[in-house]
Amino acid sequence: MEKLRIGIAGLGRLGQRHAENLAHRVPNAQLVAACSPVEQELEWARKTLGVAHCYAEYAALLAHPGLDAVFLVTPTSLHAQQIIAALQAGKHVFCEKPLSLDLEDCLKVEAEAARHPHLQVMIGFVRRFDASYRDAAYKIRAGMIGKPYLVRSQTMDLNDPGGFFVRFAASSGGIFLDCSVHDIDLARWLLDSPAPARVTATGTTVIHHGLREFGDVDNGLATLEFADGSMASFMASRTMAHGHETLTEVFGTKGRLTIGGGAQLNRVEMADHNGISHECTPDFYSRFSDAFLLEAQEFVAAALGQGKLSLKLHDATEATRVGLAMARSMRDRQAVDLL
Amino acid sequence: MEKLRIGIAGLGRLGQRHAENLAHRVPNAQLVAACSPVEQELEWARKTLGVAHCYAEYAALLAHPGLDAVFLVTPTSLHAQQIIAALQAGKHVFCEKPLSLDLEDCLKVEAEAARHPHLQVMIGFVRRFDASYRDAAYKIRAGMIGKPYLVRSQTMDLNDPGGFFVRFAASSGGIFLDCSVHDIDLARWLLDSPAPARVTATGTTVIHHGLREFGDVDNGLATLEFADGSMASFMASRTMAHGHETLTEVFGTKGRLTIGGGAQLNRVEMADHNGISHECTPDFYSRFSDAFLLEAQEFVAAALGQGKLSLKLHDATEATRVGLAMARSMRDRQAVDLL
Amino acid sequence: MEKLRIGIAGLGRLGQRHAENLAHRVPNAQLVAACSPVEQELEWARKTLGVAHCYAEYAALLAHPGLDAVFLVTPTSLHAQQIIAALQAGKHVFCEKPLSLDLEDCLKVEAEAARHPHLQVMIGFVRRFDASYRDAAYKIRAGMIGKPYLVRSQTMDLNDPGGFFVRFAASSGGIFLDCSVHDIDLARWLLDSPAPARVTATGTTVIHHGLREFGDVDNGLATLEFADGSMASFMASRTMAHGHETLTEVFGTKGRLTIGGGAQLNRVEMADHNGISHECTPDFYSRFSDAFLLEAQEFVAAALGQGKLSLKLHDATEATRVGLAMARSMRDRQAVDLL
Amino acid sequence: MEKLRIGIAGLGRLGQRHAENLAHRVPNAQLVAACSPVEQELEWARKTLGVAHCYAEYAALLAHPGLDAVFLVTPTSLHAQQIIAALQAGKHVFCEKPLSLDLEDCLKVEAEAARHPHLQVMIGFVRRFDASYRDAAYKIRAGMIGKPYLVRSQTMDLNDPGGFFVRFAASSGGIFLDCSVHDIDLARWLLDSPAPARVTATGTTVIHHGLREFGDVDNGLATLEFADGSMASFMASRTMAHGHETLTEVFGTKGRLTIGGGAQLNRVEMADHNGISHECTPDFYSRFSDAFLLEAQEFVAAALGQGKLSLKLHDATEATRVGLAMARSMRDRQAVDLL
Question: Name one GO biological process term (chains A, B, C, D) (predicted).
Fold first, then answer.
């Protein structure tokens, strides 16, 4: 069996998950190298996954002999340059979302990728690989809800009393680029890629007041109008008490699909003096772990020439473009036109 | 508008609910008299409902001039003789379930009723009047689940730490005659009255150990086979932590109907650190309050000659007969044949 | 028992429901008169409800001797003048929502009401009387979700292929004043009446294209910011395939309450070749019939001096004010400030 | 990394699933050989999984040099002798449930296993490895439902119009040994292994009448009493229209856990003219695919000396013993004592 030789850059929490998938659960992938500025992360890769070649520098990773592809799970600010460098080194690239917080950089990456048509570039909009979202997309394409005209999508995170994302706020791009970027991509995908026309957004801060100095909020609302008359409504929150809840509704002229209602952790239900209850997924990984694996499998297959990517690099640019418009609309307190 | 003049006997908790319905919510009913051995219950009827004529003795109630009908919400041991006396006095009779714990008495009541074909007699199998059970019955009759062949029905009561029913155990007939009698009636109704053929039952006592001296249990299981090959499975409990849960499933060759799953108190759902939860109906009245009203309305209409009863006196006899067989099966630890 | 003598004006579909409640289900109400320009509606009131006094003219109804109160279920354009006339005639007034589509008229009604402090005036924001909404409000006031900061509320109507509301569009005020006005009132109520600060709204028309000539849409989205930083997000639709779905979520710092999820018609669930399903409430009346009754009971009790109204006339003015701002925001494609 | 060298016997539908897991998803397993009397199944193993050594005879598989363990996914009638042969050849054994339809054979296997204490033997009661069942077991052990006293468990299969299991009926042992054996094992596990005391069972045939000649049914009911007073109630069916539904309820003195209610296929919900619905898992594999993997991982780890098996061989004997008693109770129409 032909195997894709992959090097991973970034071994934080999510990077480790990707690394484990590549090492154990993608039959035609071979995790041959890893790169991190943090020595103990490399030590983890060596000991736990048996990764033989570990590098502190990204350039060294790219130079690893025989490498076919890189997985980038690095800070967003590095994405564009790292993708471009990888392409120029002749590597296929998987990169975590968002592509970039800078629209120019997105376009530069698109341009560079266009120069290497034989190389695959995928930005990890993981929800597109979730079995439930896929089923919904299939049903929409099959006409089961008539013509879809409205998407309501929300990304609601379990409150983190430690407020990790407050420290991360300076570089996250704010709640819309960090969280809603997924929902924006879903709306475009599920509505069959209409042109974004106009955005309004607002937000409020109810727990994590430290966000204010970054112009960010812990709860955001946004509305997106498309040129064809379809619409999308978004909510994002950092302050849920019950868990991570990703919920999307697609309204069509003959029906509505809801994906993710209830946020069930598993199939257990408790009936006690509090009534009847179920636990909820605590974080995005517990919700989308299978999708992270499918995403890696699709990327690897495409890079091996055994399939096609189901999303385009330009989709990532559009998600950034709309997310940036939301941030601006909230800041300036006025609608932002996108046409 | 012609009105049915009604006297109620028994003003305990459920009796008061019936009295309120008759006084305020059944337009063509007139609650003209009440009877109770408890003076303060009569006082309540006078003050709260404006019932003008209150009696300590049932015979006096029957003798009340112009009375058309009686509502019996009295101890089960009195049902048979009170129904017979009412019929002999020319009154229509509504009587709470069960008809009697004694099969002979059931038959005597049936015989007396047969002598007064112009008088209506209804035993209050209230679930038959619940909108959800009615919808299910309609769907079954319409063939929506194919041929029904199996009913699973359970009556699970919220644990009462005070253990009222332990003190009541001597006269309740036990868990099958007190609780499952409803489920037995539902099974017969929803399966279109096949002949009961054979019963097995067992039980256990996990909280209310005082039941043991009466040969009763706080959790019971029973199986009923019908002559046509259809079956029913029953559960009854006194020890639920979450509420009163009446749940019935009807399995047919093309589908299954479930009535009462979730036991929702209302349409409110809470998402908090415990996950997502809803509260449950605490007791049968919070579950079936609308059905108690519809039941009274049907009885009143039938007594006024404006409609027909949807259940027969013999249905109540059958429920008692099967319930008694369950109690015997549990006691003797062997199957009881009913054919 | 003292009874409130009531005359009803307007006997259309909803008017008939109110009339039935007053005639049969509100013990201390007496429906003594009715008024409608449609003779067959009056005939219905006479025959079905036994209303003795029927008038074609509103003035004649007001002049009916001994009348204590009026119920107005008339076209919105008549509300203000009819309320004012009733107050001047010394009658308590219940009026269906919305109070008016004209803010000036709302204020005139408030002013007139202030001149008659002994008269009760209630605008029928029926959802405030729903058991589930009341339970949610109670839980919020009890602190069970911490500080509430965001309401998401939607009113989604079953598609009516006949498009009744298209013919009604000229006088309805549009989707926000016809549907969202309820959600606006709920948001204010559940957030404890913060001051509305700013509104943005948009919409699309996907089935009922005839709405366009009235500047109306069949699906609308709106966002409302309050002066204290709390927010509300609204959806309204005329095009649902599954039923009438009124759903409200209240997000607080410690939890979220959802009211109305699932839109269950009853407690029946079907498992068949389509999977597991339940039917949905087809219209607002099947969802809120109990609330319409409680609303009438509260009004009657207050008019008899036996209780207080739980909502103020000014609440109705605020709902109209915000609804008008939404309509303007959609029309002008810009935010509308409300402070 | 040390790897367990495994040979699989039996490559039918479920065998193929096991083989894929061993080949790709259990990092420390190596699928080195396969055995099947069906040449095209071996061909599949060679081509799809790259299994180098394929045998037509089980004896040849056992003789494969360096083999550490066997996976038996063969007909039940072969289990006992194949396990014994494997143990005598010094191999660890994983075997699909049920252990055997013959109690004597179960005991012989137990005796042989006792002679090889260093060899692991696991019977695949896969539900014990499902994340939801594990969560429930954890919660029970943690006391969250008080003392558990009643398990209700059902295995309901999607109707197979082709009736595969009718052809399989002669060797399946009947519905209780084929389906309920899982529920029996769950009940024992979740109640902490009380001693089975008494069984009653019955059944009916509503679609697959061909079962009758084998004394089998397509819908069965059974009750199991334990020596400590706890109880279990079982349902099994071959005739569901909506899917495969495995549902277990555990009742305790302080609460109830339900595992598997709703049988959701995924997180998608459809709202259309039929109401609101979701699709259901079509078969046991779509429900338990993750558990099949965890089961293999636990077995491999234990065989490598890196963990302990969480279930005992004797558990499988007990499941067979109770299942046989159910079959006998149904046939003889009387209770069967097990003490």
Answer: NADPH regeneration
